[in-house]
Specification:
Radius of gyration of chain A: 14 Å
Number of helices of chain A: 3
Structural class of chain A: alpha+beta
Oligomer: homodimer
């Protein structure tokens, strides 16, 4: 779903990736990482979609909370495994959201 | 594919959406908008994925090029139609990419 984020400024981590063939326990790891991320101080929400490429955008209160999540031991292990098994290529971009606007039929 | 963007800083427009049922000429419009965006001054690249939600991230040199694209007549018409026919809800976030890093098996 579309993340319900607060009024800017806040931060977005845009993670774009191309997967290798096969699962290699990827789905299980992805679910676990999401569960862990939600518990982090400063986590604001996440959006994810995949077909030819995958895009996951996570939203954070500030750079400090992104840094803390990056240093998380289990997340670091998952990143190492990602480079070895799950991803052919990826790109991570850290961006400061300056403004947002939306639309909802409801 | 993963967009090949220059060294930061540059800008990202993160467009997250939930579609209505049916196509309503959506695919045709989406292709046309991509074709137009690529012609804009300051356009750096785009990444897109959709399953339950759609995420399209376009990258731009600066706020001025984002503004110019927003003012583009055909793009404005498409946005109006998007609110009426194509989207149940969407959120647009304008963010300044401060750093990026990646990985590529090749």
């Amino acid at each position: 779903m579309i993340a319900e984020t607060p009024t800017p400024p806040y931060y977005a981590v845009i993670f774009t990736s191309v997967r290798t063939e096969g699962d290699h326990s990827y789905a299980q790891m992805a679910e676990r990482m999401l569960e862990l991320a939600r518990q982090q101080d400063g986590f604001l929400g996440v959006e994810s979609a995949r077909n030819e490429i995958g895009i996951t955008v996570s939203y954070w209160r500030d750079l400090e909370s992104i840094h803390q999540w990056r240093e998380h031991a289990e997340h670091s292990l998952a990143r190492d495994k990602g480079r070895k098994e799950w991803y052919k290529s990826f790109k991570t971009r850290v961006a400061k959201v300056e403004r947002d606007y939306g639309f909802d039929v409801e």
